[in-house]
Amino acid sequence: MSRVQSLKLGAAAQMLPLAAGYGVNLVATPFVVYKLGLDEFGIWSITGAMAQYAALFDLGVSRAANRFVALYHARADHENERSVVGVCVLVLTALGCLLFAIPLLVPDLLERILETGDVSLTQALFLSAATILVSGLLARALAAASFGRGRMVAASIGLSVYGVTTVMGGVIALLVTPELLAYALGCAGGACLGFCAVVTSILLDERRVVFGPPRLSLMREIISFGVKGQALGAADIVIFQSGKVIAGLVAGPAAAGVYELGSRLALGAQAFGSAASVALTTHLTRSFADGGVAEILPEYPRLTQRNAAVGIFLPFLLAATAFSAVPLWLGESNVAIVAVVMALSVALAVNVSSGVCTAAMLAIGRAGILALTSIADASLYLCVAIPLSLAFGFAGVVVATAGWITSATILGVWFLQSRVGIRMIDYIRSVLGPFATALVALFVALPVGIFSAPHDRASALLPFVLGAVTFSGVYLALGWRLHYLPRVKRQAPRTLVDEHVPGDEIA
Asked: CB neighbours of 497 closer than 8 A, spacing ≥ 6?
């Protein structure tokens, strides 16, 4: 039997696809914007958002795969473990067929939304976005099955390759033909190549891709759990993707492009901050399988503190260096992009701090409560964002999104914890220290970018380095001194039977 990799190694492995995908994306984005222009870049970002909305029809199986594989693997029920993967592949294949049919059946409707002036271009853009989406969902479902078996590293490497090839496919296409259609097709081709890389990495690690025929009884259980858990994905898509769509409808494609650029930086920092969430869900699911909720509660406060201390570092670092990071990235300063970056980064840091709460709810099978909370979250966000955007334009979208993410996260944690007997004061005590440390570091480092007022890459490099070093020095020094941040410890590999990681081991 393959050894289960530790929580610390698993959490670290989750950083690989993020570092590769977002790293290459950040490097490539200025080139893509230069070649396409803000209008066409905005059109592509809206197309991607539309495809993300369609992802809601995967019935949550991608999210459910990790939890159910981990549960059945811990119980040595290999038949059901294999069937879980079969259910996921079947549902995602059906979703792919549906998405590929949409641009063929209702091309005029899509054209009225994108307004490219060419129906065939609109069809090709949506088909490309659908290809990227479906190949990514299938790749992540197969990787999630490996994660559920405690095999984090190889699948994460495969996902890293997926992220790189998707971005580089578009870049190579633009080098050959600097047009939106070529870029879309290049990204789609790179995504297909990346999917093959994920399958290959799993084969090399486990010598097989665990797969079995879908069972009807299990399909009902997975879809029931997945649909409830899908509300999490729905809320994320509505809140994180709707901003640029609303901005585009209110102020035009260029505004959507500006919002996309700012949110791309902020969401990248958030993604790194929440990288441990899959490993946390897997670990807490095993704890639940061993001893129920009582096995999770003792380590909950410590896991929450460590997750917050590690997770909020990059969002706050980005906020502290936003005035220099944007011109260093794009080659010119843009006040609107800086505003989006700073507002969303701080809000998303609050969101990241709730990762252990969400992981615990998924681990103990309380997806229904998560669903209700997420549906209310997304619905109320639209009720706030649309009126504010109509009243105040682009600024209203930014304020609505940042403000709602912050307040909804805090209210959601209070509600969810109250359902399992965890006091809100336990969460506040756990995250108060890390946030106070981050705010101190932010206020110390922020003046570097403000007073230097960089306007291009040459003038932004030194302020960015000074700001980043200042923030990191203050935050890391205080975080380690106050024991909020983990220290690296050597530990022997654990097998399935002795996999129990104390709360202070999380990285």
From this structure: none
Cα separations in angstroms, 3 against 141, 152, 279, 283, 492: 21, 11, 15, 14, 11
Average pLDDT for residues 87-113, to the nearest whole number?
86
In degrees, to the nearest 5, what angle opens at C-alpha 367 toward C-alphas 365 and 370?
Answer: 140
Binned at pLDDT 50, 70 and 90, residue 502 comes out as very low
Give 179's DSSP letter: S
Q: Which phi-psi region, left, alpha or beta, contains residue 164 (left: φ > 0; alpha: ψ -120 to 50)?
A: alpha
pLDDT of residue 493: 46
Structure tokens at 360: 């615990």
Percent of the chain whose predicted confidence (pLDDT) is above 70: 88
Q: Decide: 73 and 148 in contact? Cβ < 8 Å.
A: yes
pLDDT for residue 3 is more than 80 = no
Alpha helices in 55-76 (DSSP H): 61-74
DSSP SS3 for 456:
coil
> What tokens does 191 get?
């995504």
Q: How far apart are CA 66 and CA 390, in angstroms?
A: 41
Sorting pLDDT into bands at 50, 70 and 90, what band is 241? confident
Rounded to whole angstroms, how far apart are CA atoms 329 and 345? 16
3-class secondary structure, 217: helix
User: Which H/E stretch holds residue 126?
Assistant: helix 119-148
Q: For residue 421, count other CB atoms closer than 10 A to its CB.
A: 8
- What is the spatial distance between Cα 378 and Cα 237, in angstroms, rounded to a whole number? 9
- What letter would DSSP give residue 503? G
pTM: 0.68
Is there a contact between 5 and 497 (Cβ–Cβ < 8 Å)?
no
Statement: residue 237 has pLDDT above 50: yes
Contact in structure between 397 and 247 (CB atoms under 8 Å): yes
The answer to whether residues 427 and 304 touch, using CB atoms and an 8 Å cutoff, is: yes
DSSP 353: T
Quote the pLDDT of residue 225. Answer: 73
First to last CA, the chain: 26
d(CA 396, CA 138): 36
Confidence at 87, pLDDT banded by 50, 70, 90: confident
Query: Residue 276: pLDDT band by 50, 70, 90 thresholds?
Result: low
CB 429 within 8 A of CB 417: no
Q: How far is CA 21 from CA 74, 164, 168, in A?
A: 31, 5, 10
Local structure of residue 58 (DSSP, 8 states): G
pLDDT at 503: 37
Tell me the HSE value of 397 on the side-chain side, using a 13 A CA sphere. 28
Q: Which of 52, 71, 250 is CA-nearest to residue 134?
A: 52
Confidence category of residue 312, pLDDT binned at 50, 70, 90: very high
Helix H or strand E segment including 206: helix 180-206
